[in-house]
Design goal:
Length: 646
């Protein structure tokens, strides 16, 4: 049974660097979870913010010649302003320099001090400035900080300590009794392993002479609070702990989403702080993996950070969101490449989803005056699709509940692919002439299926799916409970003007120039590791192999010769949902004016390639004639551009 209330949090991002894709990922994930949970009927409060104290921030400010306050005031805006551009709608944004936060930290410190859970002691140990913490001798790696690999200094200092060790057993019992408290499960084992080594007490102060940029400790103003003790408290500070009713309302439903590198601070430091303060533990702590670049964590210091702003500006924020959520399994690492993003865009969004919508809308425009046709009673074919779309709601809900967001997306995309196949199989553009009721039924089914997909993908791509829903002539569905088959009203006006997701060029494809080739027989693919035992004989391909090749009808809109070549024509073609440029080696036999306005058959899913510095986004099929001429392959009568041959 899903919960009916959630309080979802992201980490508070350090203001020592500008936001990057790692930050964007966690915030997009929490935004999507929040939207899914709201769709499933829950009430959700979503918090994010910035971590503004500590040595790293103080140093970053010094390097810029600014006071820490000037520095954080400026940099927090980079985060705050970025989120709406990624269509992230948080409910609250907390800065650790705000009075509501500093007050809560001081209240918590005072409470723990008064009850004897904080004590003062001289402490000698290895201090890492970069990691802002002491390490025990045996924790060092080759005498260096295990986190950063940088130098450590042996220092003796009088400091305040939180009796973390006192709460270790209670914490262990809680983790064991509550599977799902730390997610994914392997992370819970990691924390239990950490507890097995025995918990130390936690140094929670820094002398002001060493670090001035922090929250002063209420019972000793010569010290500021350790940045983690400070930052973690934000999760209750933002709710007005201890007195605000918002705290009572939301805190029991808290779900923290963090990266795996800050698992210990959250699942050990924070939880023991809460146990000491008598505050119940959060519902869950979810540790995500990292986005890697060339198999290394993207990080500022490695200089391999992909700029999310750049990606969203080139491909659109919702394509980036789709990619981040579809290509990352929550908890595991994933490699970020622009190529993978473009592939996702082209295959899932431009092709499967966008093209289907355009094809269906095109036919409705042509044959039903642009109005949703009345599907009438479904036949067994449609019954199957209706059952699939209807059960999808529950499956998506379960998958999201299990954090398998990538699978929830995939299940919805499978419905979209099923609709594509159904559209091809039932061929409404043919049946319109022989059996208009069947054509109406097919198109209604596709449009209604698309409305279901739009609703279930809305948490991932809120604006694009709102656009699709509106283009289908439907009202947005805000509660999954209200998503019922038949909700799309016959007679509603379709307004699908633009391609929802334009196809994109592959960013790094820069193959050596090569002349265009007329169609060649498909080469036999290398045997896949997973290929079934009965391989087809040499020279023969399987049906599945054939279905990989997308042959589509295109209408030639423009044609011109490529300068410097007598063989090449540069064509602009209409592929239904989009326009493409094709560079074709047909210029010796066919003049540009002979081909404009004609329909041709092209391979629509061929990887783009550069020919004479021009990108060719497909291949036109043609046959050599014995006289040395060329016959273009074309349908015998007009068909909608983009229709697939099969
Ligand atoms: N300020 C602390 C968190 C305090 S929470 C009370 C912090 N900030 S951070 O800016 O360094 O990192 C914030 C989050 O970004 C972490 O969860 C971290 O895992 C995540 N990411 C940073 N780089 C990342 C990737 N390359 N990939 C995915 N997330 C990663 O830690």
């Amino acid at each position: 049974m899903a919960a009916d209330r959630y309080y979802n949090t992201t980490p508070l991002y350090y203001l020592n660097a500008k936001p990057h894709i790692g930050h964007a990922y966690c915030t997009v994930l929490v935004d999507a979870m929040t939207r899914f949970e709201r769709l499933f009927g829950a009430e959700v409060h979503f918090l994010t913010g910035t971590d503004e104290h500590g040595q790293k921030v103080q140093k970053a400010a010094e390097q810029r010649g600014l006071t820490p306050q000037q520095h954080v005031d400026e940099l927090q805006a980079a985060f705050r302003d970025l989120w709406p551009t990624l269509h992230i709608a948080y409910d609250d944004f907390i800065r650790t320099t705000e009075p509501r936060h500093t007050q809560a930290v001081r209240t918590l410190l005072q409470r723990l001090y008064d009850q004897g859970d904080i004590y003062v002691q001289d402490y000698a140990g290895w201090y890492s400035t970069a990691a802002e913490r002491f390490w025990a001798e045996e924790e060092l790696v080759d005498g260096k900080c295990p986190d950063t690999g940088l130098e450590v200094q042996y220092i003796t200092e009088r400091n305040y300590f939180f009796k973390m060790s006192k709460y270790g057993e209670t914490l262990r019992a809680h983790i064991v009794a509550n599977p799902g408290f730390i997610r994914p499960a392997n992370r819970a084992n990691e924390v239990l392993g950490f507890l097995d080594k025995g918990l130390q007490d936690l140094c929670i102060s820094r002398p002001k002479e060493r670090l001035s940029w922090g929250i002063p400790i209420p019972f000793d103003e010569d010290y500021v609070t350790y940045v983690w003790f400070d930052a973690l408290t934000n999760y209750i500070a933002a709710l007005g702990w201890p007195d605000d009713p918002a705290f009572e309302k939301w805190w029991p439903h808290a779900n923290h989403y963090i990266g795996k590198d800050i698992l210990t601070t959250h699942s050990v430091y924070w939880t023991t702080m809460l146990l000491a303060a008598g505050v119940p533990l959060p519902q869950s702590i979810t540790a995500t993996g990292w986005w890697l670049s060339g198999d290394r964590k993207m990080s500022k210091s490695l200089g391999n950070v992909v700029d999310p702003l750049g990606m969203k500006d080139v491909y659109g924020p919702e394509v980036l969101r789709y990619f981040l959520l579809r290509d990352m399994v929550v908890g595991l690492d994933s490699n970020f490449t622009e190529e993978a993003l473009v592939k996702r865009n082209n295959s899932d969004l431009a092709n499967d989803l966008g093209n289907l919508a355009r094809r269906a809308a095109g036919l409705v425009g042509r044959y039903f005056e642009g109005k949703v046709p009345d599907g009438g009673p479904p036949t067994p074919d449609e019954e199957e699709i209706i059952a699939e779309a209807t059960s999808l709601r529950g499956r998506v809900q379960d998958l999201v509940g299990d954090l398998a967001v990538h699978n929830a997306i995939e299940e919805t995309m499978q419905l979209v692919r099923r609709l594509n196949k159904y559209m091809t199989d039932t061929a409404p553009f043919k049946t319109i002439k022989t059996d208009p009721a069947a054509a109406a039924r097919s198109l209604y089914t596709v449009l209604e299926g698309l409305r279901h997909a739009a609703c279930l993908l809305a948490p991932v791509m809120p604006e694009k799916m709102a656009e699709l829903t509106a283009a289908l002539g439907a009202e947005p569905v805000t509660l999954i409970h209200d998503l019922r088959w038949g909700g799309l009203a016959p007679g509603a006006t379709l307004t699908m003007e633009e391609a929802l997701f334009p196809r994109r060029d592959m960013p790094t494809v820069d193959a050596p120039e090569a002349p265009a080739e007329p169609a060649k027989p498909a080469k036999k693919e290398k045997a896949d590791k997973k290929a079934p035992a009965s391989e087809p004989e040499a020279g023969v391909i399987t049906f599945d192999d054939f279905m990989k090749v997308e042959l589509r009808v295109a209408t030639v809109l423009e044609a011109e010769r490529v300068s410097g070549s007598d063989k090449l024509l540069r064509l602009q073609v209409d592929l239904g949902a989009e326009r493409r440029q094709v560079v074709a080696g047909i210029g010796k036999q066919i003049a540009p004016e002979q081909i404009v306005g004609r329909q041709v058959v092209m391979v629509a899913n061929l990887a783009p390639r550069k020919i004479f510095k021009l990108e060719s986004q497909g291949m036109i099929l043609a046959i050599d004639t014995p006289e040395g001429g060329l016959e273009l392959l074309q349908p015998t009568g007009p068909v909608p551009a983009g229709e697939r041959a099969h």
